[in-house]
Amino acid sequence: xSNVGTxxxxxxxxxxxxxxPRGELxxxxxxAVHAVLAAGHRVAFATGRNYVxxxxxxxxxxxxxxxxxxxxxxxCDTKTxxxxxxxxxxxxxxxxxxxxxxxxxxxxxxxxxRHETGIDYLISQGxxxxxxxxxxxxxxxxxxxxxxxxxKQDHAHTLRVSTVTNFAVAAEIRTAVNQAFxxxxxxxxxxxxxxxxxxxxxxDPHVNKWQGLKRVADMYGIGHDRIITIGDDTNDLPMxxxxxxGVAMGNGRAELKAAANLVIGRNVDDGLAEFLEQWLRxxxxxxxxxRTRQ
Length: 294
Fold this sequence. Notes:
The protein is of the alpha/beta class. It is about 35% helix and about 20% strand. α2 runs parallel beside α11 (about 270-280).
């Protein structure tokens, strides 16, 4: 990281990383992001949220450029809302995954291409929907359509299949998906401790935040060895493992910390802001020696 005059791309997760524990954006963090931009570098937020869910954060941080959304399925120009790239799921895979979720009696959730369908989510009709999911949809203003048996619906525009449930049911679904699909599907779980739930998200195996960030770097002519990534949860693992400097938040999952070059402070302690400030003062303090990737 010693080439001070070189432009870098910072891939920054939102929830648990940019945002403090209650989802608030702190002034110090905003200032640190803008200091990185003022120094001539690029910042691409990389999140599991879709555009509607993430726009409120982009507006608050006052940074509208290129972002990686839906954990890598979408690359978006946040100034205009235009999608620069999208990766839809195999319709067959999406149908089969929805059937597995519905088989345990809870609702499957398919995030779809709003530009093509006019809606954000398809949700199983007649199946249990966790209250935390209903609350999130209401808070973020998602357009939702309930349909019976998502396992038998058309998934031509599906970007992601997911569900929200308690830890025991999540473990049951994870086991069933891993056994039935193996490497045909990429699954990660995001734990929401305050609600005692896990969000299970499933994609085609080639979709992840690292692939999205590489597309952004290519747009700006930035080498992939000059991508710095910061995150806290399992959907950040690919970008943490593959970046030259992969940074885990102190509040991050244990497996993410194990894969990272560096573990920084927690989001409750402004860990991201402190790291960015220090990097700008002395990038050479973060020189990285070759490491073995998992």
